[in-house]
Design brief:
Elements: H1 4-8, E1 15-22, E2 31-33, E3 35-39, E4 42-43, E5 55-59, H2 61-69, H3 77-80, E6 84-87, E7 98-101, E8 104-111, H4 118-122, H5 126-130, E9 136-142, E10 144-147, E11 151-154, H6 159-163
Parallel strand pairs: 5-6
Antiparallel strand pairs: 1-2, 1-6, 1-11, 3-4, 3-10, 5-9, 7-8, 7-11, 8-9
Length: 165
């Protein structure tokens, strides 16, 4: 039987970036792009919150869950205003881990909770439907280029130390 530390660090497959969204201004409509540069404060061209909320991510699989909780099909990622839509890997399982996202390295920091405006975007019950499914905020540990289709995978705990030698 494997120990808990081994189980927690094991993933069936890497994830994948499905969509990239930039929010050019505080309330501006998000713009879909095929690639972007992640800089220390977040995605270049995005109205980001530097630090622990520099990049926001949501699981593509949760778009259908939120839609089902609203009694409809999958919600459009654009309406949720997250930067990256990722599939194939459980984002919750990556909390506190260093994660390679394309050419960048991020660390999940906190849950990306819905804001009060989500009700307008999704309709009645949207706020409650998104709770627990709103994704994660991340800080940038190493800037880099990302593109739709890039891998999302956890790094060994000492990966950044090894790279800097």
């Amino acid at each position: 039987m494997r120990d808990l530390k081994t189980l927690v660090s094991t993933y069936a497959q890497p994830g994948r970036i499905e969509e990239i969204w930039l929010r050019p201004g505080r309330l501006a409509e998000p713009v879909s792009v095929q690639d972007a540069q992640i800089v220390e404060k977040g995605l270049s061209g995005d109205h980001a919150r530097p630090g622990k909320r520099a990049v926001t991510l949501i699981q593509a699989e949760h778009l259908a869950v939120v839609g089902a909780l609203l009694g409809q099909g999958p919600v459009e990622a654009r309406k949720l205003r997250r930067n990256l839509v990722v599939s194939g890997i459980n984002l919750v399982a990556l909390k506190g881990r260093r994660v390679a996202v394309g050419g960048a390295v991020l660390e999940w920091t906190t849950v990306c909770a819905p804001c009060s405006r989500i009700e307008k975007a999704l309709g009645e019950g949207g706020y409650s439907a998104l709770r627990g499914h709103g994704g994660w905020c991340a800080r940038v540990l190493r800037p880099g280029r990302i593109a739709v289709g890039d891998r999302v995978e956890p790094l060994p705990d000492d990966a950044l130390v090894q790279e800097s030698r």
